[in-house]
Design goal:
- The chain is α+β, with helices and mostly antiparallel strands.
- It folds into three domains: about 15-205 and about 435-475, Bira Bifunctional Protein, Domain 2 (BirA Bifunctional Protein, domain 2); about 255-400, YbaK/aminoacyl-tRNA synthetase-associated domain (YbaK protein), CATH 3.90.960.10; about 490-590, Anticodon-binding domain (Rossmann fold).
- The protein contains 14 helices and 33 strands.
- Strands 4, 8, 9, 10, 11, 12, 13, 22 and 25 form a nine-stranded mixed beta sheet that branches. A six-stranded mixed beta sheet has the order 1-29-28-31-32-33, with helices on both faces. A five-stranded mixed beta sheet has the order 17-15-16-18-21.
- Helix 2 runs antiparallel to helix 6 (about 165-185) and helix 2 crosses helix 11.
- About 45% of the residues are buried.
- The model has no long low-confidence stretch (mean pLDDT about 90).
- It binds one RNA strand through strand 22 and helix 13.
RNA sequence: CGGGGCGUGGCGCAGCCUGGUAGCGCAUCUGCUUUGGGAGCAGAGGGUCGGAGGUUCGAAUCCUCUCGCCCCGACCA
């Protein structure tokens, strides 16, 4: 049993002024964490205790399907050069040199290291499948650490890697992780949703994120309230309402119209008395093409055309053209590629490259424009637009693809579903995806198949942000007085509050009760501080412990008070019954957090 | 990297514009009282005003440089 009077639990009445999100404020106020630098935090007693419980759950569940390793965080350059990520990771990687001048980095993820081990040791299909995992610190030089523990430069990640002989094996490893992740987040009391995600620069195919809805989150999720569809906005798609077709004017061919000062979509729509959906918007980018070893990276012009009322989704555009980075074009680049100024750019008269990111201009047209006719577009000439512009007839493109972001209220893309999508903010707590052959191929991992033929194992990669589980739990369960955690991840299950330490009866009753609870297997914190009752109540409400037993005035009648933090409700209980009641409550809670075998 | 803001005792802040004894609340320590929702009274300790340089008789305050932190954007397996 732990005694509050002997512990270091530095609670604060006020939060640091720069703490914005609830989890940051409360984790600091409750003495869970202290900041050391931008995106660098120390975990104090309560914080570490809670994180240890989370890690315990993760480990227990992961042991069902995988084997735990412990890998170095200090990594030599070579494996990263072999995979192409020494340059590919860019500035997000912490790099350093040793005394001999050799390049090292701090691990931000461990695909290369696991693959190095696999390459050196795995020889036969008989050794597959393998699932290897680790729970360790990761380092990322984030451009902007923020929101307390939500985006930091050092954090704890459970990451696992699967090696399979074929795609069917990978599917199985993926599904095993999916199931185990659902168990983990459920046991941690998170209200999560699994969404389709972009696989990003990691390469690979199927990709799924586990998200917890909260306004503190940095991701946007589109989901359907009717069916099960949910996707990260980087990936989400939707059904659009048909737009009324416009009648051609004159001979129906593109016609130059003077539109002085109409540089914005809203101006153009007003000028032509049309919906912005019938205006073609152009966003011009320079895209970075990453070359393989030895060759310099190169920038290429990309013109993105879409409906005037839509927004470019840069993640989709990156994936579509196969670029590593995007930036918007400068005025002189607009002149070079379009021979026209911003605000009046259009697709007619351009000469699109046959393949993306070649010498000329890559033209990408959003699918929503494909079947439209008689639209309005910029004329690549100051103060002029064209009308009667029909895609395919009047201009061509390098690629036709979905490059727009979906908006709330658009139709659910699932067949036959009539739902309207809603968009909400969420924080990512886990991510599983199928890597494919990217690392095993580039790093030369090979095994012999049953026919004695050399084959490349196929890989998957699966991550969980340990601190983010805590953060998300705090975000989803807090009020003005503090937060509460489920017993499974709370630093203590119950705090026994002796309301007046000067009263010998209360002291003895509290001590005895705490010892009993402890003996029954509960995680007990005894608040034996020589403080006024009010102080103890305020602290108890703050620090995330789900149950509190007040030992106070009614102790003389053999009664104590059981307070449930989540509901702020209390009941008087006979001293002899309180142990059974607390156990019952905790078991009921735990039942809600179980998943079928 | 672009834009904005802030660095004054452990936390939250005032003072800076208009240069002249470094202040307030909370916290801490001691004593007495108090004891069911962050107590009262009395006393005490604690600050190179982020750092460096400059202007000045004199700088927390004005100027220059620099470091750090936060927010918005960009970015983000």
């Amino acid at each position: 049993m732990q005694r509050w009077s002997k512990l270091f639990i530095p609670t604060l009445r006020e939060a640091p002024a720069d703490a914005e999100v609830a989890s940051h404020r409360f984790l600091v106020r409750s003495g869970y964490i202290r900041q050391l630098g931008a995106g660098i935090y120390s975990y104090l007693f309560l914080g570490q205790r809670s994180l240890n419980k989370i890690i315990g759950i993760v480990r227990e569940e992961m042991d069902r399907i995988g084997q735990e390793f412990y890998l170095p965080a200090l990594l030599p350059k070579e494996p990263w050069e072999q995979s192409g990520r020494w340059t590919g990771m860019g500035d997000n990687m912490f790099r350093l040199k040793d005394r001999k001048g050799a390049d090292l980095c701090l691990g931000m993820t461990h695909e290369e290291i696991m693959t190095t081990i696999a390459r050196g040791e795995l020889r036969s299909y008989k050794q597959l499948p393998q699932i290897w995992y680790q729970i360790q610190s990761k380092f990322r030089d984030e451009p902007r650490p923020k929101s307390g523990l939500l985006r930091v430069r050092q954090f704890t990640m459970k990451d696992s890697y699967s090696f399979d002989i074929d795609k069917a094996g990978l599917d199985k490893s993926f599904d095993l992780h999916d199931a185990v992740y659902r168990r983990i987040f459920t046991r941690c009391g998170l209200k999560f949703v699994a969404v389709e995600a972009d696989s990003g620069a990691m390469g690979g195919s199927q990709s799924q994120e586990f998200m917890v809805y909260t306004d503190a989150g940095e991701d946007l999720i589109a989901s359907c309230p009717v069916c099960s569809y949910a996707a990260n906005l980087e990936k989400a798609t939707s059904l659009l309402e048909p737009v009324a077709e416009m009648e051609p004017t004159g001979d129906g061919k593109p016609e130059l119209v003077s539109t002085p000062g109409c540089g914005a979509i809203s101006d153009v729509a007003a000028f032509f008395k049309i919906s912005p959906a019938s205006d073609i918007k152009c966003v011009a980018y320079m895209a970075l093409k990453r070359r393989t070893v030895g060759k310099p990276d190169t920038w290429h012009g990309v013109a993105a055309f879409l409906r005037g009322d839509h927004q470019v989704n840069e993640t989709k555009l990156l994936g579509t053209v196969g670029a590593a980075e995007l930036r918007t074009m400068q005025a002189e680049e607009l002149e070079r590629y379009f021979n026209g100024p911003a605000g009046f750019l259009g697709p007619v008269g351009l000469n699109p490259d046959a393949k993306p990111l070649e010498e000329g201009l890559t033209v990408v047209v959003d699918k929503s424009l494909d079947d439209r006719r008689n639209l309005v577009a910029g004329a690549n000439k100051l103060d002029y637009h064209l009308r009667n512009v029909t895609p395919g007839r009047d201009f061509s493109w390098t690629l036709l693809a979905e490059i727009r972001s979906v908006n709330e209220g658009e139709g659910c893309p699932k067949d036959g579903c009539k739902g309207k999508l809603v968009v909400g903010k969420a924080v990512e707590v886990g991510h599983i995806f199928k890597l494919g052959y990217k690392y095993s191929e580039s790093m030369g991992a090979r095994v012999l198949d049953p026919n004695g033929k050399e084959v490349t194992p196929i890989m998957g990669s699966y991550g969980i942000g340990i601190e983010r589980i805590l953060t998300a739990a705090v975000e989803q369960s807090n009020d003005k007085n503090g937060f509460w955690l489920p017993a499974s991840i709370a630093p203590f299950t119950v705090v026994v509050t002796i309301t007046n330490m000067t009263d010998a009866l209360l002291r003895e009753t509290g001590e005895k009760l705490a010892a009993e609870l402890e003996a029954a297997g509960l995680d007990v914190l005894l608040d034996d501080r020589d403080e006024r009752a009010g102080v103890k109540f305020k602290d108890a409400d703050l620090v995330g412990i789900p149950y509190r037993i007040n030992v106070g005035k009614k102790a003389a009648e053999g009664k104590v008070e059981l307070v449930t933090r989540a509901t702020s409700t209390s009941v008087d209980v006979a001293l002899s019954d309180v142990l059974a009641l607390v156990k019952e409550r905790v078991e009921e809670d735990a039942l809600l957090l179980t998943v079928g075998e």
